[in-house]
Design goal:
Distance between the termini: 86 Å
Strand order of the largest sheet: 1-2
CATH superfamily of the largest domain: Rhomboid-like
Strand content: under 5%
CATH topology of the largest domain: Rhomboid-like fold
Number of strands: 6
CATH architecture of the largest domain: Up-down Bundle
Order of helices and strands: EEEEHHHEHEHHHHHHH
Structural class: mainly alpha
Number of domains: 2
CATH class of the largest domain: Mainly Alpha
Number of helices: 11
Helix content: 55-70%
Radius of gyration: 28 Å
């Protein structure tokens, strides 16, 4: 079908000049024909304005500068999935006696394991351990197993341990991702895990392995406390919850108070960097602050390694 040009002086669609139009885009005020009309909350938008609006929506920022997540639970669910996968692998390969526990748990120093269980005291090198019959060398952070500082935060053995930690992660994680965005939230989580592990490395028993995401979980609680103080909301409920958990930390045996307090301090410090960064230079200040906290933690780990070595 052939279309004839519109008479002079009659408004025409900006995309189809041959079509008369008396409808205008609510955003840019350009004339649009029925084929170019896009429904909006009020009136109609043209295709170009609709595309710009979608782009702006996709790049919307969270309260503290991160990209707004489409699903705030995604990162937490991925972290939960990794923890559960490691736990299942440990269960299928022997539970507490799994070789995975020996490789992934946080051992400050290496140990020489006897054939029937237990450890040979005073055997502090792999070379010396290898001279024994049926012995197994379990590496520690001071001997070069640096990955344990992070892998231990994804390692669980007891079902109740992983159940409690993953429930707390599911409860607190999405809230923080809404505040910070995915990248900042993940950085907060991992830094809390690292500071918790570093505190264990410094103040925990040298020959006792440690596992669990509790340091990172306490970091999330510390971050929520910092945000609550910043926005001046009632922190009574969160303070009671944190107080109960700290009480259990110091009253129940076999719980690493070092990891809990280290993670709490690390998470609170990281959240303070993210929350109090000046709006005008928010991202550079946040990145620099998180890198500084990470660097200080790594230096502390290196100093402790030198002492133990």
């Amino acid at each position: 079908m052939t279309e004839h040009p519109a008479p002079a002086g009659v408004p025409t669609c900006y995309r189809h000049p041959e079509r008369k139009s008396h409808i205008r885009c609510q955003r840019c005020d350009r004339a649009i024909c029925p084929d170019c009309m896009r429904d909006a909350a009020v009136g109609f938008h043209c295709p170009d304005c609709l595309a710009e609006g979608r782009k702006a929506t996709r790049s919307a920022r969270t309260t503290y500068g991160g990209l707004r997540p489409t699903n705030a639970a995604t990162t937490s669910m991925v972290l939960i999935g990794i923890n559960v996968a490691v736990w299942v692998a440990i269960v299928l390969t022997g539970g507490s006696r799994s070789r995975l526990v020996e490789l992934l748990a946080l051992y400050p120093v290496g140990q020489c394991q006897a054939p029937g269980g237990g450890y040979f005291p005073g055997v502090g090198t792999e070379a010396l351990c290898s001279t024994g019959v049926g012995t197994t060398w379990i590496p520690g952070v001071a001997d070069g197993a640096w990955w344990q500082l992070m892998s231990s935060a994804f390692t669980h053995v007891q079902p109740l341990h992983i159940a409690f930690n993953m429930f707390a992660l599911y409860l607190f994680g999405p809230q923080l991702e809404l505040y910070f965005g995915r990248a900042r939230y993940l950085a907060l989580y991992l830094l809390s895990a690292l500071t918790g592990a570093a505190t264990i490395y410094w103040f925990g028993p040298e020959f006792t392995p440690t596992v669990g995401a509790s340091g990172a979980i306490y970091g999330l609680m510390g971050a929520l406390l910092v945000i609550s103080l910043k926005v001046r909301v009632n922190i009574q409920g969160l303070a009671v919850l944190l107080g109960i958990n700290l009480l259990l930390t110091f009253t129940i045996s076999n719980i690493s108070w070092q990891g809990h307090l280290g993670g709490l301090a690390g998470g609170a410090a990281a959240a303070a960097v993210l929350v109090y960064a000046p709006r005008a230079r928010r991202t550079p200040v946040q990145v620099a602050g998180l890198l500084a906290l990470t660097a200080l933690t790594i230096v502390a780990i290196m100093v402790r390694t030198a002492q133990l070595s």
